[in-house]
Design brief:
Blueprint lengths: L14 H36 L4 H40 L3 H5 L1 H5 L7 H21 L6 H28 L13
Helix pairs in contact: 1-2, 1-6, 2-6
């Protein structure tokens, strides 16, 4: 028998199990964020490389990147979403339910098995993001690139913060945040 696996300890107290669940839940969310960055980056950089933006459009691009980095990256990811994703992943690892383990990234994002308030907030945000994406798709360059540039900046900031929160959580130093779990 492997030295770190004890037959007397429950599965949820096994270090390899906890790490696996936290990596699956948080890593799944990080993959979704990375996919957004990868898909939007070429569109975001297109007007910059074309060199056809006016001074006003350059200002709008810069201002939107700064604004979105602060609002989406710092306030959204760093102050709420990222710590909550990791705390929920750790909670799931310590109190596993098979169906939540399968859907761990959705669980970590607060889209399932959460307080009513968290479910409403998470689903509203998701529907809002999808709606904005549908609208922005219809814009031509450079305005689509300007908007996507800010989104890429915010998502990139968020991806890094998620990684930092993941490392801190695995080291036992997760940020204290309400996991918004149902009673």
């Amino acid at each position: 028998m492997h030295p770190t696996v004890s037959p007397r300890r429950p599965l949820s107290s096994q270090p390899w199990f906890v790490v696996s669940v936290v990596l699956w839940g948080t890593g799944g969310v990080m993959l979704l964020v990375a996919q957004g960055i990868i898909r939007l980056y070429p569109l975001a950089i297109e007007p910059v490389l074309a060199g056809t933006m006016t001074d006003f459009q350059w200002f709008a691009y810069f201002a939107w990147v700064v604004f979105n980095t602060f609002v989406e990256g710092y306030r959204g990811f760093q102050k709420g979403f990222s710590p909550r994703v990791v705390v929920r992943a750790i909670h799931l690892a310590k109190r596993p339910r098979w169906w939540l383990l399968l859907l761990a990234p959705l669980y970590c994002m607060g889209l399932i098995h959460a307080t009513r308030r968290r479910l409403i907030a998470s689903w509203s945000l998701l529907i809002g993001i999808v709606s904005v994406v549908m609208l922005v798709r219809n814009l031509g360059q450079p305005w689509r690139g300007i908007i996507d540039g800010g989104v890429v900046a915010g998502l990139t900031y968020g991806f890094v913060v998620l990684g930092v929160c993941l490392v801190r959580g695995l080291a036992g130093r997760a940020v204290e945040v309400d996991p918004d779990l149902p009673e």
